[in-house]
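Below is how a single chain appears once it has passed through the pipeline. First comes the sequence as given, then the structure the pipeline wrote out for it. We keep one example in the README because the format questions we get most often are answered faster by looking than by reading.
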Amino acid sequence: MLQVSVIRESKALILERLAKRNIDASQMLEDVIALDEKRRQVQTKLDNTLAESNTISKEIGGLFKSGKVEEANVLKAKTGVLKERSKTLTEELNNAATNLNNLLAQIPNVPHESVPSGNSEEDNEELYREGDIPTLHEGALPHWELAKKYDIIDFELGNKIAGAGFPVYKGQGARLQRALIAYFLDKNTKAGYTEYQLPLLVNEDSGFGTGQLPDKEGQMYHVTGDNLYLIPTAEVPGTNIFRNVVLNEADLPIGITGYTPCFRREAGSYGAHVRGLNRLHQFDKVEIIRVEHPSKSYEALDGMVAHVKSILKELKLPYRILRLCGGDTSFASALTYDFEVFSTAQDRWLEISSVSNFETFQANRLKLRFKNANGKNELAHTLNGSSLALPRVLAGILENYQTQDGIVIPEVLRSYTGFDIIK
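Resulting structure:
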């Protein structure tokens, strides 16, 4: 959530940057400033009323001690009027604050200066590409056909048990899935991230803190009886560890990692482009999360990008990195890099990771602060990245490593799987 003070000081710059998202925020920002002005005026009136009431209350005590009961009763009646006025002003103040917060919650994060303008994924910028795209044998299959041929993933059984988008991993497919999770976690912990096991359900405050609520409410599974939400990513519970926390500057940076199943309704997702593992309602993901000093967060973002690159290099998968345009950047992000792996059998790129810097946007919603060198509380910066999302990584391995004899396991995973090939 944007800070009102920043909107007041940098209104023109914010309007210019939000235009990269194809948003004309001029009226919203004017309304924010007007509501904040009203809130300030009501706060001043309330403070003055309370101060006057306190002064009179002290006078009343002195008058009673002096035996001036009649004068004291006159002032006592006046305090009753002031008390009612205070009550009315408090309600006005609460309403103004609520309206202000509700409006601020609707404004997305301000894109970083490097974010290109654009409407959709077609306007994203390719920054880097690595890895050779393999030449497959004649008759090579997409991963959903390979899954059926080798009996490692059963999409029909998942559909029977739960519905479309809930696959069942079997035998060597389940073992390969578990191997990827262990490998990703080992890579992350060796890079200095502390591993956490996190809840799979979160409350509204947690969803609001990271920006999923109210922006993505329709994409989240809602457990109505307890008013909890199934997590769309470990980013939500992981980042909310630090909600309403004041850190010391010496505590920074903080890095955590965690594996969780993730749940997304993905309403309206149909067609050939979502076949197999391409888009699921339940999938596994390993996440990395950082809390950083504002002056070091973009250096940390570069480090996260390099870390994900190292994983894909070890897996020997062809991949590219995109800088997302304003229209394709998520509500809470200031800058996002997407990693995509090339699916040779499908002849298309598949997104496997997003690495983002949210600057103070999440921290302001979370009330995540640290005491700076001057002893004052300052908002931290939060970052997160997929390291990695499993379904499309698995799809890339199955398709790119297929041979006429079977699916070869990437060398770096063989100590985790216990086998070299799926036959």
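DSSP finds 13 helices and 19 strands in the chain.

See the next section for the split statistics.
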